[in-house]
Amino acid sequence: MKIDFDLVSKWMIEIRENPRMLDCFWPSQIASKKWLIENLDEEPYWRGHMGDIIVFGGWYGVLAQMLHQKYPGNYISVDTDPSCEEVFNRINTNSQIKFKNTCMSEYDYSDCLFLDMVINTSSEHVSQEVYAQWWGNIPRGTKYIVQGNNFFETDEHVRCTDTLEEFITINYLESAKIKKTLNCGMRPDGSPFYRFMAIGIK
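and the corresponding structure tokens:
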């Protein structure tokens, strides 16, 4: 996929002022985003017109911005960190991409005119209680993409899983149409870590 030059420029300017944003562009982060977008290309029920798409754990809105480049539509990037909203507002000039500062488990879907899909690439960052409430709130018939990983070596990852099967089970994704893993990078000890992804319709 192609990324608009002006958008890349905005990212780089923000990284200069806010080095923490560089974490969005580590090879493993880019690989997981690219992997997600490529899988959308492969699935016929993702093509054509899309309604509202909500990215949970959206950080600075980079994934929503990347998706919008290929699949124009209405996006809402949700994150609990208010500083992410400040950065998002400096970068984003697209009226079809919005930011919501709230916990994923407390998101109010009345914001959506026509909900089409939810994306959660941060399932390892929240407790089982928060995830369960988030999952329970998703309206039936909504398309979903959920990612997680087996990278236990950081304190921010509170709900990793060792295997794809465990990932599917604790995230209630037995109905997923696609279940895959991606060799996403290296652990501090030099061994690989994997990202898991499930795509389906609730």
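(Above: one complete record from the training split.) The mean pLDDT is 89.
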